[in-house]
Amino acid sequence: MELPAPCQREIGNTQFGNNTTIHQDNNTYNLHLPLRPARPFIHIIPYPRNEDLVSRPDLVEKLNVLLPQTSRAYCSAALWGLGGSGKTQIALNYAYNRRDKGTCSVFWVHADSEATFSQDYKTIAQAFGVDQQLKGEDLLAAVRDQIAAQPDWVLVLDNADDLQIFGVDQAPEQTKSLYQYIPRASVGTVLWTSRDAHIAGTLVGSRRGIKVARMKSDEAEELLTIARDLEANEEELETAALLEELQWLPLAITQAGAYMRRTLTSAKEYSSLLAESKRRWEILKVNEFDRHRRPNVPNNVLETWGISIDRLRQESETAYNILHVLAYVTNQNIPHEIITTILKLSDIQPEQLDAEATKAITRLKEFSFLGMQRTEDGGRSYEMHKLVQEAARYGLSLWQPSVFDKVPSEKEGQGYFSGIAVQVILDLFPDSEPKTWAQCEKYLAHAVQMGDWAGLNERQAEINLLFRRVSRFFLDRGRWREKELVDKRGLEFDRKTWGGKHPNTITSMSHLAATYYEQGRYNEAEALEVQVLDLQREIFGDKHPKTVRSIANLASTYREQGRYEEAEALEVQVLGLRRELFGDKHSETISTMASLASTYARQGRYREAEEIEVGVIDLRQEILGKVHPDTITSLANLASTHYEQGRYKEAEEIEVGVLDLRRQILGKEHPDTIKSLANLASAYYEQGRYKEAEALDTQVLDLQREILGKEHPDTLGVMHNLAWTWKEQGRLSDALILMEECVQCQRSTLGPEHPYTVKSAKFLEMWKSEDHSLESNEIHKQSGQVDGESSE
């Protein structure tokens, strides 16, 4: 009998660029964990109830028809309309009404971006008591399933303005979307809010979208009265004229009312201020360039903002500065520490921080620029309307001292404030290591947001360092799709900033190559690695550690492409150079030994591989200790070699120990932990324990297809193995179908000459012949013939 595909080997860590580490054959295999018992009536709503909400009965009635509160079936709907039209407040009121039923769980998720979506799912996971080890797609899937398991639930997805992240109108190369993590069940309610009318007919049915337009006159008048916190005492015509100027838009009315309340301004006086603000904005909007960069912000929002911001600056320069720095972070889940860090950079003394922060936050809230948010840990967090941020940034982009009668200052304009935002987030986003991962996650959305402002300021070094930290965090968590996006932005930024041959640019190329490698995109990884190696040789010479590291990376890619002789030649070269540069016991020397052993094993040179691996284990135990991740990886490699030698029981014993250690140290969902599960399945197979092998391989395969894609090399390896298991169980037809799919994907992904493709194709042809023999045999039986002999 032919053996199934070998265990997926793991080798020592390979360094990319400036200490960027990749783990060979180390991809994200996610686990389907059993659901915990559902906790009834969980309520996660980040905003307090709006006690001053103005009723909009026509919209509420439409919403209740589409999402009846007594429904015992799954249903969804969307509120869509211009920013500032009141969509979120309507959704918030619906959420609280459902909560008040007492038998319904309610969950609120900010759907602005993948980062805010993931952050809120993490908060929900904590409320459910989901395993805290889960990260990335595992966590999203676990939360989805926990919500769906509730007896009655509502999920509000607020500000889903970028529909592409939910799979709408995605580019052909995009294969992932967050839509797969929206719960579906026999019972449940999903309510979306979005500026994009396209949400109706895509994410919800064409008849399940509700347009939220301007308020009716009486509704707008009531809102202005509430916002002013005064009884209306002007002539009705004055109030009506002002509301018409504000276009009956709730956000503009609230902003104007807050100003009028704070300054005791009448409707007539505010109309005059509005006319002046409009004049000034028109002066700033005269050139053609501005028409192309102007955000989708209603004129009245810009104009009311102009009035309030001028007053805010008169009262508090500190609050003014904080507002404009916050315009460049994510608008939701703004931790209090961001504000205090802004003040630290403004040379506020430590003993004055809390008092100054309190005063500034109070003023920002009084002008309706800032709102409070609830947090599960009891900390202070804030939110700012997206339109306020857009208007603030737009104002800074057009800032002209001659128009606003200001003296020119270096502390003005978008370059200054976006630069402060970058420095603040860099101060708060730490270097990635297990003890800082929670801190990284807390500020991740804000750190990713900084990429949008990379070209606005002179903080090139800080932006470069922040890109590095975010990329490293995604690498440590195995979140390759998010890492790829950050790496591409980082590389583009470095090329524009430093040029194509700068060390920062070369490092960014290495980071992106590492990401391609981890995604199984070996040809793309090779192309970048060759460029990096040529540049390193040109700049540093043949024996510089960075050049040697680049050679080692290229060797790893050759091995995964099945180019074993080329990989071996490079690894022997690297081992000699590293022994010369660092000595025998340096981590990079030991890593090269592990890589060479892996290549020997791929060539069937198991005794040579085993000898090196035993030496690597001894060295790593001596230098790093017995429970260091690299030591554990060395044990896993030895187990794989025992497997290849037919020593299955020994392989199993080592792999069980490795699996236990990885669960303890790395967590259940870490890619290395999942690697151990896949290897254990192979050991079970070879011992004839097909049911156990099938259970593990099926679990891994389902998640690989979902997360890595059906053509990822690691997905194909498990497909191959599972096909063999089915064949051994007598399921030849199922095995043929799976192996045929495997071969087709291997030919397109790895190429027809790759050793894995050749092996799988060979087995496929053998099985087809066997299947034809069985079919022929069955025909013979039915016609009275057996084994070609006549019954006559």
UniProtKB/TrEMBL annotation:
Signal sequence, start to end: none
GO MF annotation terms: ATP hydrolysis activity
Parts forming coiled coils: 220-247
The UniProt record lists the keyword Lipoprotein: no
Source organism superkingdom: Eukaryota
Record bears the keyword Glycosyltransferase: no
Basic and acidic residues compositional bias, start-end: 772-781
Keywords: Coiled coil
Name of this chain's protein: TPR_REGION domain-containing protein
Organism: Trichoderma simmonsii
